[in-house]
Amino acid sequence: MLIGGQAVLLHGRPRLTEDIDITLTADPSRLNDVLEACATLKLQALPEDVELFVQQSFVLPVLHDETDIRVDFIFSSTPYEREAIDRAVMVELRGESVPFATAEDLIVHKLLAGRAIDLEDAAAVVRRKGSELDWRYVEKWVGQFSDVPGHEDLPDLLADIRK
Questions:
Q1: pLDDT computed for residue 63 by the predictor
Q2: Kind of pairing, strands 43-45 and 19-23?
Q3: Per-residue pLDDT tens digits for 78-126
Q4: CB 91 within 8 A of CB 98
Q5: How far is the C-alpha of 104 from the C-alpha of 131, rounded, in Å?
Q6: What pLDDT, on the 0 to 100 scale, is given for residue 92?
Q7: Cβ burial 100-124 (10 Å sphere, 16+ → b, else e)
Q8: 3-state secondary structure of 163
Q9: Cβ count near 47 (within 10 Å)
Q10: What value does the mean pLDDT of the chain take?
Q11: Number of C-alpha atoms within 13 angstroms, CB side, residue 49?
Q12: Residues 84, 1: contact at Cβ < 8 Å?
């Protein structure tokens, strides 16, 4: 499922993004399968110690040799990520059906990331799709993630972008 800047282009606002963020329906135990797929697609892993990096971050950053486009593969392991992937909206791109995060899941992802650009992205999604959003779903996950140390401020961040 595409998340990050690509999903912001779909649900929020036009903005420059320099990479592609993809959440996988796989946990880090599937790293070798992902590396095999990367080799087929001419994607070069960026970390020196790939296994350690993925174990610590749940992310595999790769670079496409021919285009210099960076792709971050995010391994999923939580019920939230699995539900978000199941809810993905399919978008037709060049004759292929590509799963994108829903607007609601993009908001949750952006609030969790919490950088200034992410909060701006979340606010842009609210401005564009506010009346269409399933706020109960967003509030459910924001509430659950606010119990995680370091994310206690999520309800306040959500209230700020809803203004």
A1: 98
A2: unpaired
A3: 999 999 999 999 999 999 999 999 999 999 999 999 999 999 999 999 9
A4: yes
A5: 12
A6: 96
A7: bbbbbbbbbbbbbeeeeebbebbbb
A8: coil
A9: 15
A10: 96
A11: 5
A12: yes
Q: Which two tokens stand for residue 43?
A: 């994607």
Element (H, E) at 121: helix 116-129
**Tokens representing 134?**
């399933």
pLDDT (0 to 100) of residue 64: 96
Alpha-carbon gap, residue 98 to 96, rounded angstroms: 6
β-bridge partners, 90 = 99
CA dihedral 71, 109, 121, 114 (to 10 degrees): -100
For 160, the token pair is 């700020």
Phi, psi dihedral angles at 151 (to 5 degrees):
-120, 20
Residues written for the chain: 163
Query: In the structure encoding, which two tokens stand for residue 161, read together?
Result: 């972008």
Amino acid occupying residue 71: V
Q: CB-based contacts of 127: which residues, under 8 Å, 6+ apart?
A: 12, 13
